[in-house]
Amino acid sequence: MAKTKRISQNNGANLGFEEKLWQAADKMRGHMDPGEYKHVALGLIFLKYISDAFEEHRAKLAKDKHADLEDRDYYTADNVFWVPKPARWSNIQNNAKQTTIGKLIDDAMVAIL
């Protein structure tokens, strides 16, 4: 497989993570059809993104002693996805080595709907 060009920022600096990202994606894909794999990869990227946004908003809410950190309305009022505990990236990351990781991710995606 040909090496991909490094993505650079506007200032010309190399980011340097592309090779590791490519290797991780290739390992995760295994023998899966690329047409199917894109749904898996995009789903994981989406789940990571909303989980990060949720945690960032949660940190802001934690500064308010009257805020309920587990109340969905505090998040949706500010257009932040509510991410239930089982769907949070930290939970997925902590269980990544389990044989049931596929089901855990499927359940996480269902939980955020």
Which key features would you list for this structure?
113 residues, disordered N terminus, mainly alpha, single chain
What this model shows, in words?
This protein has 113 residues and is an all-alpha fold. Helix content is 56%, strand content 0%. It has helices at 18-29, 34-62, 72-76, 89-94, 101-111. It is elongated, with a radius of gyration of 17 Å. Residues 3-9 have low confidence and may be disordered.
Task: Give a brief outline of the structure.
The protein has 113 residues and is an all-alpha fold.
Ordered list of secondary-structure elements with their pairings:
Blueprint: H1 18-29, H2 34-62, H3 72-76, H4 89-94, H5 101-111
The sequence of SSEs as H and E is: HHHHH
The percentage helix is 55-70%
Average predicted confidence as pLDDT: 83
Residue windows where pLDDT falls under 50 for at least 5 positions: 3-9
Supply Rg: 17 Å
N-to-C CA distance: 38 Å
Structural class designation: mainly alpha
Strand segment count: 0
Overall 3D form: elongated
Strand content: under 5%
- Sheet having the most strands: none
Number of helices: 5
Oligomer: single chain
